[in-house]
Design brief:
The mean pLDDT is 91. Strands 1, 2, 4, 5, 7, 8, 10, 11, 13, 14, 16, 17, 19 and 20 form a 14-stranded mixed β-sheet that branches. The chain is built from no helices and 20 strands. The protein has 171 residues and is mainly β. Helix content is 0%, strand content 64%.
């Protein structure tokens, strides 16, 4: 298992997976530009304690960020992932989270994606705090969840200018 990796201030473009984090622990991915890939960032297969912060993830063909395997019978493949203060835009799906435990999102701008966030097969707890959604075809797609909460999440008008918006908290 790979441990304690930090990737800072990189431009990553033109790959099948811009960055892949597999079977690693204590990975930090900060202030990077990830664009024009098939999948921007993939966190999967035993990844633990991953932090994605202050990144711009844009114009990826499929997923901006993919966390987990998508297999309904493989719960917990990814554990303790944080997404903080990222800009996620113009992807087919901004963020897909599946088969994961303890995923925390805070202060992200998620906009102009076909689907902003898709959650499926979550075993234990996904938290959204002060995230800002706007101009997405579908803001939040939920399926097979055990536990999630929203706290101060804004679903804004298409311009994202905090006029005619909904501030939502669900516990």
């Amino acid at each position: 298992m790979t441990k304690r990796i930090t990737i800072i201030n990189c431009n990553i473009m033109g790959y099948w997976e811009g960055i892949s984090i597999h079977n690693a622990t204590d990975v930090s991915f900060k202030s990077n530009l990830v664009y024009n890939n098939s999948h921007g960032i993939v966190v999967d297969f035993g990844a633990r304690n991953t932090i994605l912060s202050n990144n711009r993830i844009a114009y990826n063909a499929y997923n901006g960020i993919l966390i987990g395997t998508g297999n309904a019978y493989d719960y917990g493949s990814v554990y303790n992932t944080s997404l903080k203060s990222n800009y996620i835009n113009n992807n087919e799906r901004g963020i897909v989270i599946s088969n994961s435990e303890l995923v925390n999102l805070a202060n992200n701008e998620i906009y102009s994606n076909k689907v902003s966030i898709q959650l499926r097969y979550i075993k234990n707890f996904v938290s959204f705090i002060s995230d800002h959604f706007y101009n997405n075809w579908e803001d939040l797609h939920l399926g097979n969840l055990n536990n999630f909460n929203l706290n101060g999440v804004v679903f804004d008008n298409p311009k994202g200018n905090f006029k005619n918006y909904t501030n939502l908290s669900i516990y």
